[in-house]
Amino acid sequence: MTSAGALRSPLEAELVGRLLDRPPTTARLPVGLLTREGKAAELRRLQARKAMDAAYEAELVLGLAEDTPDTLDPPPGHPGAKKGSWAPDAELPGVSAFFTSELATVLNCGRGTAAHLAHRAWTYRESLPATWAALAAGGLDEARAKVLAEVLQHTCPAVARAIEARLLPAATHLSTGRLRVRALALLLECDADAVDKRRKDARRQADVRSYPSHREGMSALAADLPTPVSAECLDGVDQLAAMRTADGDPRPIGELRAAVLADLIRRPWDTSRTPVTAQLTITAALDALAGRTDQPGEVNGQPITAAHLRELLTRLGALALQTPEGGTVTLAVTDADGRLRATATPEQLARLARRGCPTHPEQNCGCPVLDRPAPTAAYTPTAAQHAFLTTRDRVCRFPTCGQRAGWTDRDHVIPHAAGGATDCANLCCLCRSHHRLKTHARGWRFVLDDDGTLHVTTPSGVTRTTRPPGLRPPEPPAAASTPPAVAIPDDDLPPF
């Protein structure tokens, strides 16, 4: 597949380059001078421009996809060929499996968001050309175009276009909800198998997620379930919460529902089954634990207040740096900028304190006794390196990826086979998908700084930088001060 950019003339290349170098601009009217009717008219014009931009975005996405054919991927049977549940689904026919990661990096969004955008663009072109044209003309807003693409993406292009022809003339007169209902009804009438495929696809993409809540110190736990199962679970939780209320529990019903759900998952009363131990990664400054500062901490990467942190650690028996039953305590030693210097358990610290400097055992010298784990000649990182990297990185370090470190590989940024050392300065955490991308996708560049800062550059030349979560961002450059005015001597004044 030949990129269109390779066929342009030098003059065209120069013109396109100048246009791309221009900062983005948009025409704006002075809002204060607009009447009420004028503001409403301008909002409608703005909506039309958004639709046009969405159509243009789809065209750009498809163009970038054409520059990334699947002929660049490892062939079947190759160690890097996609296989199993770790491999991402091919989003577009004939397009590299690594394309969505590049698109996510370019747009600075998650891979799931990029995959939906790419598939929607493909659906516009292959199955809904009239919808795409209406979007490009500003006659159909993006929200309604998305509804048509989401409902009709699994049916064949002929059926999709037939349904599109029946819905498009009245689409702007329907709410997005009503448009979705009508599209689904027509799809059931014309292609019931496509509806079943949508359900199977939805089940395949189901997952359980935890993300920060807008309520202080709380997180939301969400699961994608078939609608009947979800309704059954909610009703069961509601009934159990009502039973607690009837037993005299004074807490609000919402709090009781949340407590019931947590108990059903954790089963604290059930000792007949093999126990499941959850892993919490708690990050806190010593001053916060001692109550000398209100610096917030983290639990599994989500911020909590210092008071909440002390309460949690008290419950775990870790405030006095005691290892809780079934858990571990790892101390991270950082410099003033948050750069990780070393990790150790309380027991290791106690041994180091007793032993002191092995070179000057009788002196109070300044020799370091705790530092970053030493490199190893082996390919596999040592246990000390593993602990250091887990503490430093906490998640997959690929831009926009948040996979927890427990599900990641410890990857050599400079490959071990190419002379890269098994050293923490050359290792970082990457989830299996992004580890595979770094190893087998062509045109990508990964650079790791000594402090753990990772720079990732896509084949299209976009660079994103990720820093270890504990590393403080660099100070912004100081604003350039206006140089003092210099008096011009009288003899330098121009003649009049």
Automatic annotation (TrEMBL):
Domain HNH nuclease: 384-436
Protein name from the UniProt record: HNH nuclease domain-containing protein
Region of interest called Disordered, as start-end residue ranges on this chain: 66-86, 457-496
Pfam family, one: DUF222
Regions of compositional bias (Low complexity) in chain numbering: 478-488
Native source organism of the sequence: Geodermatophilus obscurus
